[in-house]
Design a protein that fits this description.
Blueprint lengths: L4 H19 L2 H4 L11 H13 L4 E9 L5 H16 L4 E6 L4 H4 L9 E8 L2 H14 L8 E6 H36 L2 H28 L6 H28 L4 H28 L7 H32 L19 H11 L1 H16 L7 E2 L11 H12 L8 E6 L3 H12 L4 E6 L2 E4 L2 E4 L6 E2 L2 E8 L6 H12 L7 E3 L1 H35 L3 H26 L14 E2 L1 H31 L5 H33 L5 H33 L12
Parallel strand pairs: 5-13
Antiparallel strand pairs: 1-3, 1-4, 2-3, 6-11, 6-12, 7-8, 7-11, 8-9, 10-11
């Protein structure tokens, strides 16, 4: 890098341009949805419904409303035209209408008779159905005067989530970039030095978008991975570059610039390598989840970490060589004080004098903040993740409040078509479950244990029969979950397979919780090994794991308190009484990796100070800790502020689960950089003394 900096930058710029061209169309290659396990019961049933019954498609729900009852004839004529147009489209499996299907008219018409539904089932699943919905809705003929048409349902919900996510991404970048530059000016005390991390961060966003496009050619990738790319590219690129440039400037004050760069890369560069591997493996663990929504963040995280590490270790040194003395131009304010004269050093020494009581008090505080997470409830996303004014949210509210039974709550049950009496007895038992409406099958319709109507011949295909259980409950409610338990408990003549929104909700949560133990084990094991290799200590990796989990528990408690229980107005989101199941595990993997990022920064410098001190006693340990924290304080504080700004920008998202993710990660970063770094770490290492460095491999 020192010998040929220009060549390095030209080659790097060429790679960046190629990746930029590749990533220009990345949004079109990504998919929405991806929260279901393809091997789950509901997913298998959904495939059979699509292949054999033309009922497994993603629903597009059109709500047709009139304020004046005199317009009912006009809306009926318009609904007929819509039904015909939708039925003729190749992406539509089936259309049910309140006006064209007498059997469905009652359940597709609101209680006041002024709103009716047209429900089209679209092919392509949650990956392609949203695009079909956009095309179909865009081609709808204009409604007659007095008729209001709104589009909703799963397909339209995901389409609007995609659109909103794109707008939120642009806004997050516009908020984050100028604020991060201001923080960097404060951290570096100069405009030129502050510009270097911003350049690397911007390049990381461009490059990782191209890398993600390559991944999307081979496997399904969620569109929300783009949000992670923006946040993580800025956060890690600026973090790593900040560390290297700060150490370089520190060393340049004592020696020549060439030697300063060599020392900086041998110290801060080594730290970047360990940090990148630690963060990358924490994010890579999400590939163990069966749903591609979470796996996508593993792909995006690995791409981000790989490029930012490359840029920091290769591009940044070349930039520093070319800048030379100009790195210190346009200075703002005065430089940092000597380590042992700084307020950070004094603060750590004050904590060390009261290590045990402060550690206990802080742990109690974090546990208290985390207590609400014991009552966490997990669920599946629906239209309520969107702003209340979106058409999908409005239609969803109409369906939940104006229609009985709830058309979105149907529980679909597939059973092998054996003796008709067996199916009839089973359907009769299902209809006796509290809260159910009519239960229809191929041979009849039952209500509260009695046959009330004939069957639907189309509910039999080959050796499989379909039973449709209507319900009055919102499929995402606790009542629907209890009802689903009762339906599963009805004696089955043959093993039955369940589908529907309530079953999909259950399967999504169960799939995530089933994968969590192996994901956590993988993260814990890799983190322990890497920190052991970094420090040569067996105790420090355990300390890092425990303290990071402790601080994250406080973050999760806050998320339950705000977004599940609705305190602080849910920060402007619609409170549904549960958290989206993907978010806690996603937040854990990202926040844990970033917490270890700081841990690596800190322990590397403490270890360096420990190795440089002549003694190997408690006093030397305490001095190394104080010097290590004070020496990295300005960098880590700036890095924490930068990360908090980046994630807080995501917190302005209009999609509720992305708002939760942004707010949660910002809070996690701030807790880790304050209570953990400034209180728990020095207090713990004070109490442990020289045992911190056992078995002594860190001396080498």
């Amino acid at each position: 890098m020192i010998a040929r900096p220009g060549t390095v930058l030209v080659l790097s710029a060429t790679v960046l341009v190629l990746l930029g061209v590749l990533g220009a169309g990345v949004g079109g290659a990504l998919k929405s949805g991806g929260s279901t396990d393809p091997d789950a019961e509901s997913a298998r049933a959904q495939q059979v419904l699509a292949d054999e019954f033309q009922r497994g498609g993603s629903p597009l729900v059109l709500s047709l409303s009139v304020a004046d009852p005199a317009r009912l004839a006009a809306v009926a004529e318009y609904a007929g035209a819509l039904t015909a147009a939708l039925g003729a489209d190749g992406a539509v499996q089936r259309v049910d209408s309140a006006w064209s299907d007498p059997a469905a008219a009652a359940r597709l018409t609101s209680g006041d008779g002024r709103t009716g539904l047209v429900v089209a089932r679209l092919t392509g699943g949650t990956g392609e159905a949203p695009h079909h919905a956009e095309v179909l809705v865009g081609a709808l003929p204009p409604p007659p005067d007095g008729v209001t048409v709104r589009a909703g349902g799963e397909a339209m919900t995901y389409q609007q989530i995609n659109e909103q996510s794109g707008r939120d991404l642009v806004r997050a970048e516009l908020i984050a970039l100028p604020l991060t530059f201001l923080v960097l000016v404060w951290a570096f005390g100069g405009l030129v030095a502050a510009a270097v991390p911003v350049v690397i961060g911007g390049a990381a966003i461009i490059a990782t978008s191209g890398l993600l496009r390559l991944v999307a050619e081979a496997t399904d990738v969620s569109v929300f991975a783009l949000n992670l790319i923006t946040a993580m590219s800025l956060a890690l690129a600026i973090d790593y570059t900040l560390l290297v440039v700060s150490r370089y400037r520190e060393e340049a004050a004592r020696r020549g610039r060439t030697d300063a760069l060599v020392v900086a890369m041998n110290t801060a560069g080594r730290t970047v390598v360990f940090s990148a591997v630690t963060v990358g493996l924490s994010l890579a663990a999400m590939v163990l989840f069966p749903m591609y929504f979470l796996r996508s963040f593993a792909y995006a995280g690995i791409a981000v970490v790989a490029f930012t590490a490359f840029a920091t270790l290769v591009v940044t040194p070349a930039i520093l060589v070319l800048l030379g003395d100009r790195i210190d131009r346009l200075r703002v304010g005065r430089g940092p004080r000597p380590t042992d004269e700084s307020r950070w050093y004094a603060m750590v020494r004050a904590v060390q004098r009261r290590a045990l009581p402060l550690a206990v008090a802080t742990c109690v505080l974090l546990l208290a903040l985390g207590a609400p997470f014991l009552g966490a409830k997990l669920g599946y996303p629906d239209d309520r993740v969107l702003p209340t004014g979106s058409s999908s949210h409005v239609v969803g509210d109409q369906v939940r409040t104006q229609f009985r039974p709830n058309p979105a709550g149907d529980v679909l049950i597939l059973v092998p078509d054996g003796a008709p009496s067996g199916i009839e007895e089973y359907a009769k038992g299902l209809s006796g479950v509290p809260g159910t409406g009519p239960v229809s099958g191929p041979d009849g319709t039952w209500l509260r244990g009695e046959r009330v109507a004939g069957g639907d011949p189309s509910a039999r295909r080959g050796a499989t029969a379909l039973l449709t259980v209507t319900t009055e409950h919102d499929p995402m409610s606790g009542a629907a979950r209890s009802q689903l338990d009762a339906l599963h408990a009805v004696p089955q003549p043959w093993p039955a397979v369940f589908a529907g929104a309530a079953q999909a909700d259950r399967d999504a949560v169960d799939s995530i919780l089933g994968a969590v133990p192996r994901v956590l084990a993988a993260i814990a094991l890799t983190t322990f090994v890497l920190l052991f290799l970094l420090t040569g200590s067996l105790l420090l990796p355990v300390k890092a794991l425990v303290l990071n989990v402790l601080s994250l528990s406080a973050t999760f408690g806050a998320m339950v308190w705000i977004f599940q229980e609705g305190h602080l107005g849910g920060l402007g989101t619609t409170v549904t009484g549960h958290l989206i199941a993907d978010m806690p595990v996603l937040m854990f993997c990202i926040a844990f990796g970033l917490s270890m990022d700081y841990e690596v920064f800190l322990l590397s410098r403490i270890r360096e100070e420990w190795r440089g001190l002549p003694g190997r006693d408690r006093a030397a340990n305490d001095e190394a800790v104080a010097r290590g924290i004070a020496g990295t304080a300005r960098v880590v504080t700036a890095a924490a502020l930068l990360m908090a700004v980046v994630f807080a920008a995501i917190g302005f998202s209009e999609v509720s689960f992305m708002r939760m993710l942004g707010v949660g990660l910002a809070l996690a970063v701030l807790l880790d950089a304050t209570l953990v770094r400034l209180v728990l770490v020095p207090a713990f290492m004070k109490v442990a003394g020289t045992a911190n460095w056992w078995p002594g491999l860190g001396h080498r």
